[in-house]
Structure formats: structure tokens, C-alpha cells
Design the sequence.
């Protein structure tokens, strides 16, 4: 990083490469920094439920090591196969974000290399963040535009001893919302409430805990929404929907019916290719759209929350980000961390 700064080179970080196509294509890439050789567990304080790892460590490898101690980093990578640094840089999280939170919530410390090659630490055992910034929150979801993530420390949870899934089919968008809200506001504490639709629309919930407690909670959930109880998830669980354009939508959980209705109302020939899937409990969904008409579909979805096009085919013109009220502040932060705008230039919102 210091050498790149000295030569004025643009730098793009990469982990396993599962999400390098997310965000806008960078305006330049003189140097691609692959972090996979940074693959160690630096420290696992099992008694404190804390782990510190290098950024290139595969999440699957970390999961296997922690499982030996009966612990877990409760993140479900989307898509599978990512690294610690990748899941932080893209801010992605899977179904269990409802109970455990996202990477931003579980992160307690971070080490980064700035654009000028200076190493900066925040959180964990460090008392004060660099320059007054909460580096963990800033770098989560920054797509490599602020610096290179090299280490991270996370809060862990015990591995649940039992799990059960409850899934049911909704007759329409309104019933899907009623089912998701009934689960969310019950005392059953689901670890995840996911939806997949339209045509048909399926609502599913995951319950985790002790062997004596999970079955009664799952059965109570089945009595609320119908369907069936199973030990395994539906086939679509924890998978991104397939489509030419992948959109992340964030809205109030109560917007679910409106979002499903928007997709069902797309012009003839498009609705079969449009699909929404994700957390009906947290209000974070991924929507797959055909490239033809995607810009109009994005405008429809933005009536109910934010909608960001994560991926799109080359040559397809889209308003990827939509309105960004905080863009002036984001530009000032970019100028502080990367004054020459050499880190993944143009990949993030507003051409940052």
C-alpha cells in the first residue's frame, strides 16, 4: 500500500472474489491486492467468546475451527465462500441477522491499512479510535474505498444444540405480511424470518436453542402461520435469488406486502423473472430483476425504502444507488481517508 501510494497507483482489494462484481465497476485498477494469504486466526479467547482473525480467512474455515469449541460467528455469508474481510467490506449478512445482527453488530475491533500505507487500529483493546472515527462502522460496507481491512475481532455465540424450521405458503402478499408479523411480534424468538416470492410466496422461520425448548416453539409457530415443521431449511434458504440485476432493498418490515405487489405489477413478461428473498424480520431483502426494465423496477421499489443495484450486466445503464442524503458527508470521509481517491475509485455511491 505504501509503494502504491508512492507510485500513485489505484488499488482494489479482493478476498475470495465472490463479490468483486458487487458495486459499480472501479474506474481504475493498477494493483489488485489479494488478501487470501492473510488467513490466520490470530487469537481465539474461547472463555471470553471473542475471536481475532486476519481478513483473508475463509468464513467456512473459521466456522470449522470455532465449532470444535462449541462456538460460532453467527454470520451467514451471502453468497457462500467469502472471507472475513469480504463480508465486512460489503456489509453482507444472511438469515440469522434477525437474532444475532450483522457483521457491523458483531465486530468489536478492526485493523486497516490506510491509503498511505499507515496501519490503524480501532476497537478491541484499543481505547480510542483513530481521529475520532468508529473505524469498524465506517469500513463495514465501504467496498474497499477507504482502506484495506487486514484484521478483525468479533463477538462469538455458543452453537445452538437444536434447530427447527417452520415454513408455510401464503395465498397473497397481504397474508405473507400477516404471517411474518405474527412471528416477529410473538414471544417465540425466531433466529430468522425469511420470505421467498412471488408465485408462490413462502414464509419460513428458524428456531434455535436447547433440545427441550425448540420443538414446542416451532409447533407454536406452526399454529400461528400453518405449514410444516422440519429439521432442514427450504431449498432457497440463505441463497441469493437468480437474475440479471441483483438489488438490495432496505425498508420497514411492514413494507413486505407493498414490495411483493410492486414485483407482481411489473409489465407482462417481467414478473416471472423478478424475485424477492430475505429477512422479513429485519426488512433487508435481495431482489432479482431482468435487465430489461430494471431501472423502472428500481424506481418502484424505492417508493418503499432504499434500493441499491449490487450487480448488473455490463452496458446496462442504471441509477444504482438512488437518492443519497448523506453523500456530502461520505465524500468528506473519503477525502480524509483517501485524499487522492486511489482506492477502488468509483466503486461506491456517488462515484466515491
Sequence:
Amino acid at each position: 500500500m505504501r509503494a502504491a501510494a508512492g507510485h500513485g497507483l489505484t488499488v482494489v482489494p479482493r478476498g475470495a472474489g465472490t463479490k468483486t462484481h458487487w458495486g459499480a465497476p472501479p474506474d481504475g485498477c493498477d494493483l489488485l491486492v489479494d488478501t487470501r494469504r492473510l488467513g490466520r486466526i490470530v487469537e481465539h479467547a474461547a472463555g471470553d467468546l471473542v475471536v481475532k482473525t486476519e481478513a483473508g480467512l475463509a468464513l467456512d474455515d473459521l466456522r470449522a475451527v470455532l465449532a470444535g469449541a462449541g462456538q460460532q460467528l453467527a454470520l451467514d455469508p451471502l453468497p457462500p465462500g467469502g472471507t472475513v474481510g469480504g463480508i465486512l467490506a460489503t456489509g453482507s449478512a444472511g438469515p440469522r441477522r434477525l437474532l444475532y445482527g450483522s457483521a457491523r453488530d458483531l465486530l468489536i475491533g478492526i485493523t486497516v491499512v490506510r491509503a498511505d500505507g499507515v496501519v490503524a487500529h480501532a476497537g478491541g483493546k484499543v481505547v480510542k479510535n483513530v481521529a475520532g472515527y468508529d473505524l469498524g462502522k465506517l469500513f463495514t460496507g465501504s467496498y474497499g474505498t477507504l482502506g484495506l481491512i487486514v484484521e478483525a475481532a468479533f463477538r462469538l455465540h455458543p452453537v445452538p444444540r437444536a434447530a427447527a424450521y417452520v415454513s408455510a405458503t401464503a395465498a397473497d402478499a397481504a397474508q405473507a405480511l400477516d404471517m411474518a408479523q405474527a412471528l416477529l411480534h410473538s414471544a417465540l424468538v425466531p433466529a430468522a424470518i425469511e420470505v421467498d416470492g412471488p408465485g408462490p410466496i413462502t414464509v419460513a422461520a428458524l428456531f434455535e436453542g436447547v433440545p427441550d425448548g425448540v420443538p414446542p416453539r416451532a409447533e407454536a409457530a406452526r399454529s400461528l402461520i400453518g405449514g410444516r415443521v422440519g429439521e432442514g431449511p427450504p431449498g432457497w434458504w440463505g441463497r441469493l435469488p437468480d437474475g440479471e440485476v441483483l438489488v438490495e432493498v432496505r425498508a420497514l418490515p411492514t413494507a413486505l406486502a407493498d414490495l411483493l405487489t410492486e414485483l407482481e405489477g411489473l409489465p407482462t413478461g417481467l414478473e416471472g423473472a423478478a424475485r424477492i428473498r430475505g429477512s422479513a424480520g429485519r426488512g433487508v431483502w435481495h431482489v432479482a430483476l431482468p435487465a430489461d426494465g430494471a431501472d423502472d423496477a428500481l424506481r418502484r421499489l424505492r417508493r418503499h425504502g432504499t434500493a441499491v443495484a449490487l450487480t448488473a450486466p455490463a452496458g446496462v445503464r442504471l441509477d444504482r444507488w438512488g437518492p443519497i442524503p448523506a453523500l456530502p458527508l461520505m465524500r468528506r470521509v473519503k477525502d480524509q481517508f483517501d485524499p487522492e481517491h486511489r482506492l477502488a475509485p468509483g466503486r461506491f455511491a456517488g462515484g466515491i
